[in-house]
Every structure is written in C-alpha cells, then in structure tokens.
C-alpha cells in the first residue's frame, strides 16, 4: 500500500493520534544486519505506518538496500519505503532497483538526488543519467505510472548547498521552495524533511510551502540526540541550526552519554508535542538503527505502550501489495511465520483472502533458508540447546524449560521466547512436556475475550475473539497409542498424527478444515484467521521433523552421542496436532492425566 494512502486513511479517521515511521540504514557487517532485523521486529510490533531504508551515498549499498527492503516488506511485514538516489547511477541501474522492489511488492520510494560519494565534494551527473531528484520523480512517473508512491526530501532551513554562515539567503531559500514545488507537481505525493532542532523553523517552512501551493503532507524528520559528538557531526554535516538553549543544556552534560540521551528524549518529545499541537499528525524518526530513544519519545507522546502491542491479526499480515488480502493461515507455522511466507511466496492468488483458493497451490519445497538463523540467534540456541543429552528425559527437560520461559530460544521457533497467550497455560505445558509430550505450538481456549486483551486479543478494540485449545507436540508411538485410546472418551478432541515416514493416524477426514481462531467485530463478517487442516499438516510435518536434525542435532559434532539420540527420536516419534473443539467447557489437558 502507498504510504500516502495510509496517511490519508489516518487523517480521514479523524484520529487525534499521530502516525509515525522509523528510518534505518544498511549496517556494514552481517552481524549488524542480523541485529538490525531483531531490533526492527521489536520496533515494528509497535505498528509504525511505514519504515524507511536508506540508499548508501553514490549507490554504495545498492544490493544490500534492495535485499533489506525486500526482507522488511515480506518477512518483517512492514510497509517499506526505499530511498533511491540518482548520483552516480546510470538509468539502467535505477530501473533495475525500481523493477526489483516492484516485483517484491514494495510501492514506496523516496526519490533523491544524493550526495557526492566519499572523497568527492561535487555531485557529478552520470552521462545519460539524472541531474536532480526532479528528474528521478519524472522518470518514475513516466515509466511506472501510478504504481509507486513517491516521497521527496524537503529542507526547512534550505538545502545545505545554499546555506552560508548558518542561514540560507532569502532568495536561495525561495528558489529551494519553488524547486520543491516542482518535485511535487511532477508526481511526488509526500515530503519528508531534513532533520532540524528549531521547531519554529520547521513550522515556518510548512507555512511557506502552503503559501506557494504545496498541499501534500509534510512529515517532520526527527533525529533524537543520542550522543554529543554524533550530534555535532550530524548537525555540522547538514548545516543544521542549533538553538542556543539546546547547546546550553548539552554543554554541561556532554561527557555523560546517559544524560545526553535522556535530554535527547526530552527534547524530541517536546518538539513533537509542539508539532502535533500545530495540527500535524505524522512523525518520521531517524533511528540511526537504535530503538530506545525513538520508542521512548513515542511512549512519552502516548503513541505506543510498552505492554500493549496491538495485533491486527494473530499473525502479522504481509505488507506486500500482492498478498495484502491474505487472511487465513494454517496454525502450524505460528512460530515460524518467515518460513511460512517463504514457502508460499510463489502463491499469487489471494483473491479474497479465502483459504479455499490458496489451499490448492503447492507449498515451496524445503530449502536451506528454512533452517538458516541469524548468527546472534544461532549463538543463543547453541548456548541453550547444545548441551550433552544422556537420555530422552534430558530432551523432555529442554522442552519443559522452554515452556516455562527458562530458555529464550527453541529450534522450532523463529520468535523470541513465548507468545503472551502461551504464558496462560505455561504450567500445564511444563507438566506434559515432562511426561514426554514435547510441545512446539499451542493456544489456550478463549470464549469471547475482548479483542484488545493484551494476551489473546487481536483486530483492535470493539470486538470479541474466540479460539479452540490447541496443542502440537512430538511423542513416542506408545504415548500416542495411549492418547488415541483416551480420545475415544474425550469426544470433543480431534487429532492428526504422523511420523517421519508418513504413517498417519487421525479421527478426522483428510479434507476437514477446522477454524481454531475467529473474531466477531462491529460491521464486519466473522474473521477466521487460523485453521488446522490435514493437507498443510502433511507439508508442515516434513519441516517439523527436519528441525530435529538440521535445527538441533547439527549443533553437535558428527559422532556425538547426543546427536545420535536426537536422530533416533526423530525417526521414531510422531508429530501430533490436537484440537479441543469444546472451547466453552473443554479441558484439553485433562486427556493427559494418567498417561
Ligand atoms: P534535489 O531535490 O535534487 O535538490 C538538491 C538541491 O539542489 C536543492 O537545493 C535544490 O533546490 C537544488 N536544485 C536541484 N536541481 C535544481 C533545479 N533544477 N533548479 C533549482 N534548484 C535545483 N542521501 C543518500 O545518499 N541516501 C539516502 O538514503 C538519503 N536519504 C535522505 C532522506 C531525507 C529525508 C533527506 C532530507 C535527505 C536524504 N539524503 C540521502 C541526502 C540527500 O541525498 C542530499 O541532501 C542531497 O544533497 C540532495 O538530495 P535531494 O533529493 O534533496 O536533491
């Protein structure tokens, strides 16, 4: 979706809250990229309207920026705006970048001229290339029509090139404004500004823009001060005016990083309050890839709450323009959403988001990608799971500890720790794991909880959510037989079980689809975002079993006895999916008594 549409929607809703966005830059190392994505996951949970990724000066990060943009839009599932500069860029390279993001379902570009690459102080136009952002905007509109939302840069103090002795001469400032209008007239639908620390200058700039007929939203770029030296470097580079009171406040604390950061949060909050008081409802935070200050400012403004992370659905809906209508998923990948997305990436049919249409499409084959983890995560997993295992009881204990929140990682999850709803049943889960029912997925029964409940809610306020109790686990054939016998007594239970070879046991038909999560909202059809179905279960089982070897056993050296033990379990155990259909009175854990 275009960012401008999101902003218009928010404005039309007459919501007094502001919408906000975060900007990131491509880190220099692989570890840095891993860390950025972990941080981004946490920040995106607070529902920014969009996030930006910058384009390194002179196209120096082109490939990385394209890859990060793709992952942001399709894996992190946040609306992504990619910066694109035309400095040192032949038109073919620009088109390659635009075609790439288009095919990845990204609809937003921040079109820029760019600065000269390091070592050069003048911008050099590539032969046959573009001279300025205006050329780039015209090109995007003429070649890609209406597909992209185009944002351009605005400079409240004038572009640094025209600033002399701290200010832009009035004529140069007016020329800059007139040029900005040309960028908008050529097809830009949004302006994001250069950083500033004098809010009055920003407000005057907005007013000046309106005076000359620029009507598109102007989003203030806020850069929280994180440390004194960085602040001086950045403001020096951009020739940003520093109001004397800010310098006076920073000077005595400049060597105390904690105090500088706290002041930066205070200043950022006050600037945003003043901007919002003038009626502007959009904020863009230059995060410099750090999360604390940006989130603290938004918390001070009441735009995010630490404890309340709103979920539009139980899973994060992809931002990709081609699959925004997707609204049903099998529960099996609940803890591995990225794997699910990558295995369904070839599905081009989400016409009405109905499960029935997409069910016929084939899942992508298992690839190494499914078992690749960010390095930091791999390290944690190694620490927590690659310990000597003497017998199966040691394995049971690992699963139990994860369910009790004593371990942060599990080979079967891409997420960090347990989901809030799992904590409701953590003790029961711990107990059955110790008995040898090794759980990898679960949800408690819910019979009409408010849709903004912090633990089980989704879909925003005003509705009610429901779900059937669900458990998914590995267990030995003996335990499975005992469970199957008990299921004859507990008639509200339906199950499917399969081992690695595909031997199948179940008390449902293989075409049955069971909705296990649904919600009732004002003026909407019933939404049922999560289902249990045998066809996807058979696809999921390959991945679930493969994790025993590629996700866990592989953490040990080749002939290690622990590795052998894990491979033995993998070859003997069953994967079981168990639903209690009585979401009103059922007690799913009762079936495990005396087994
Ligand atoms: P332009 O809009 O082309 O304008 C540059 C200056 O030249 C202005 O003063 C303008 O008035 C003048 N000018 C240009 N053409 C004309 C003309 N025909 N007539 C009159 N005046 C003209 N840089 C990166 O390398 N990567 C990034 O990801 C990046 N992201 C940025 C994000 C934001 C929000 C901002 C504000 C800047 C960003 N920059 C980035 C920096 C930016 O590339 C530089 O500021 C660059 O010097 C100008 O780019 P621009 O798109 O504003 O240029």
Automatic annotation (TrEMBL):
<dbReference type="InterPro" id="IPR003171">
    <property type="entry name" value="Mehydrof_redctse-like"/>
</dbReference>
<keyword id="KW-0285">Flavoprotein</keyword>
<comment type="subunit">
    <text>Homodimer.</text>
</comment>
<comment type="pathway">
    <text>Amino-acid biosynthesis; L-methionine biosynthesis via de novo pathway.</text>
</comment>
<dbReference type="GO" id="GO:0071949">
    <property type="term" value="F:FAD binding"/>
</dbReference>
<dbReference type="InterPro" id="IPR053806">
    <property type="entry name" value="MTHFR_C"/>
</dbReference>
<comment type="similarity">
    <text>Belongs to the methylenetetrahydrofolate reductase family.</text>
</comment>
<dbReference type="Pfam" id="PF21895">
    <property type="entry name" value="MTHFR_C"/>
</dbReference>
<comment type="function">
    <text>The probable reversibility of the MTHFR reaction in plants suggests that they can metabolize the methyl group of 5,10-methylenetetrahydrofolate to serine, sugars and starch.</text>
</comment>
<dbReference type="GO" id="GO:0106312">
    <property type="term" value="F:methylenetetrahydrofolate reductase (NADH) activity"/>
</dbReference>
<keyword id="KW-0486">Methionine biosynthesis</keyword>
<keyword id="KW-0274">FAD</keyword>
<dbReference type="InterPro" id="IPR004621">
    <property type="entry name" value="Fadh2_euk"/>
</dbReference>
<keyword id="KW-0560">Oxidoreductase</keyword>
<comment type="pathway">
    <text>One-carbon metabolism; tetrahydrofolate interconversion.</text>
</comment>
<dbReference type="InterPro" id="IPR029041">
    <property type="entry name" value="FAD-linked_oxidoreductase-like"/>
</dbReference>
<dbReference type="Pfam" id="PF02219">
    <property type="entry name" value="MTHFR"/>
</dbReference>
<keyword id="KW-0028">Amino-acid biosynthesis</keyword>
<keyword id="KW-0520">NAD</keyword>
<feature type="domain" description="MTHFR SAM-binding regulatory">
    <location>
        <begin position="311"/>
        <end position="586"/>
    </location>
</feature>
<dbReference type="GO" id="GO:0009086">
    <property type="term" value="P:methionine biosynthetic process"/>
</dbReference>
<protein>
    <recommendedName>
        <fullName>Methylenetetrahydrofolate reductase</fullName>
        <ecNumber>1.5.1.54</ecNumber>
    </recommendedName>
</protein>
<dbReference type="GO" id="GO:0035999">
    <property type="term" value="P:tetrahydrofolate interconversion"/>
</dbReference>
<dbReference type="GO" id="GO:0005829">
    <property type="term" value="C:cytosol"/>
</dbReference>
<dbReference type="InterPro" id="IPR004620">
    <property type="entry name" value="MTHF_reductase_bac"/>
</dbReference>
